[in-house]
Design a protein that fits this description.
This protein is mainly α and 147 residues long. The protein is built from eight helices and no strands.
Length: 147
């Protein structure tokens, strides 16, 4: 399989026995979804305090939190209705539920992932499940009475 995988990925890792790759993928998604949640909250906070969305995001992108993820999601956070869905809130909720199940099975406490799951589940229940993961900010805006 290595020759095929080498064509599909920049780098291939062997992480252990069968199923370990899925566990590492969920672990990575836990971090990405935590970043997404924190970014959405911080952006909505600044907006509610009167700082324009684009200005705030420019500072985010060029500050200590500037990262590949912040750059990658910029258009989705700045113009949520104009950007194609890369990873839907339905999938966010699904993955965070899988994280919750894995954590329960192995005895790992995941309070941040649990909180993120609660928000994602609520956003899906608010009919935002087909929106991009950055739609968490849209959901938070509805809680703040903006939409």
């Amino acid at each position: 399989m290595r020759p095929v995988l080498d064509l599909l990925a920049r780098q291939v890792f062997h992480v252990g026995a069968l199923g370990s790759g899925a566990i590492v993928k969920l672990s990575i998604n836990t971090v990405v979804l935590g970043l997404n949640q924190a970014l959405a909250e911080a952006l909505v906070l600044a907006e509610r305090a009167g700082v324009p969305r684009e200005t705030t995001y420019e500072v985010f992108a060029n500050s200590a939190i500037g990262s590949a993820f912040v750059s990658y999601k910029r258009a989705a956070f700045e113009r949520p209705d104009e950007v194609p869905v890369a990873f839907s809130l339905d999938l966010v909720a699904k993955d965070l539920d899988l994280v919750r199940q894995l954590a329960a099975r192995v005895g790992a406490r995941m309070p941040q992932a649990e909180a993120n799951l609660g928000v994602a589940t609520a956003a899906v229940a608010a009919a935002l499940g087909d929106r991009d993961m950055s739609g968490v900010a849209t959901y938070l805006r509805t809680l703040s009475g903006e939409l």
